[in-house]
């Protein structure tokens, strides 16, 4: 088979859903995976869309006058968490019986499906609790800068002392926390469930929760975007068994984000100057489970 045909087939397979019958395909290393093109250390060659000439995207949906029937692109400001979910008409609160605390919000369609999934889980004796949902740019900035400055200890130490080099310090934080402006939690489609520790999901109740989610979440549109690192997902965050993404909305939001983002837009927080050098968009935003799709 000519190389081009192999690549086309691989792209099609890479777009396949998480349905069980396709896991054998998805276990193959994907030569056409977008993340395979990431080039650490060459951040100035960040692959971005055609919209980067627009330095100031409008605050509202950017193509309100687009073709009838075409989904409207969501503005980069909103995709970077510049909104207030308490007053935003597209957002709603997580139901109290699912939320670990007050003030958790997500996009309405995603929260509706999450609620149905939690109801189904409960009938199977599995309890789902939302620990984190939408986070604004300023929420993420606080999390990031607390680690950057040493206010929050990382692996028992203060990062300015244990990892003084800025790029290496950013990569250490990126093992689990996103740079402000690059988090899927800005989108209102992604939720952290039950525990932020992998150990919880390894045995007992946590194991049962994880097995239930792996078997059933796809039915409700959810996928584990931060799957184990390996041939399928060589770049990005470490595995997060707790982070589930509502793909019917999130896959379009990722496309809108990648079309509009440019390196200079990732700014406004301590350490943001490292974003280009460590190629954060290609390695982390694109570094998601290729088996997740919008089906
Ligand atoms: Zn998360």
Overview in brief:
By secondary structure, the protein is an alpha+beta fold. The protein is built from ten helices and six strands; from the N terminus they run αααββαβαααβαββαα.
List the helices and strands and how they pair.
Layout: H1 3-14, H2 23-26, H3 76-79, E1 91-93, E2 105-107, H4 108-123, E3 130-132, H5 137-149, H6 159-162, H7 166-173, E4 190-193, H8 204-216, E5 222-223, E6 243-246, H9 247-260, H10 280-285
Antiparallel strand pairs: 1-2, 3-4, 4-6, 5-6
The structure holds zinc ion.
Mind explaining what this structure looks like?
The chain is built from 10 helices and 6 strands; from the N terminus they run H-H-H-E-E-H-E-H-H-H-E-H-E-E-H-H. The protein has 295 residues and is an alpha+beta fold. It has one domain: Muramoyl-pentapeptide Carboxypeptidase, domain 2. It has a 4-stranded antiparallel beta sheet. The relative contact order is 0.18. Mean pLDDT is 83; it is low at 5-64. Bound molecules: zinc ion.
Total tally of structural domains: 1
Bound molecules: zinc ion
At the first level of CATH, what is the class? Alpha Beta
Q: What is the number of E strands? A: 6
Query: Can you give the mean pLDDT?
Result: 83
Query: Can you give the helix content as a percent range?
Result: 25-40%
Helical run tally: 10
Structural class: alpha+beta
Largest sheet: 4 strands, antiparallel
Radius of gyration: 19 Å
CATH architecture classification: 2-Layer Sandwich
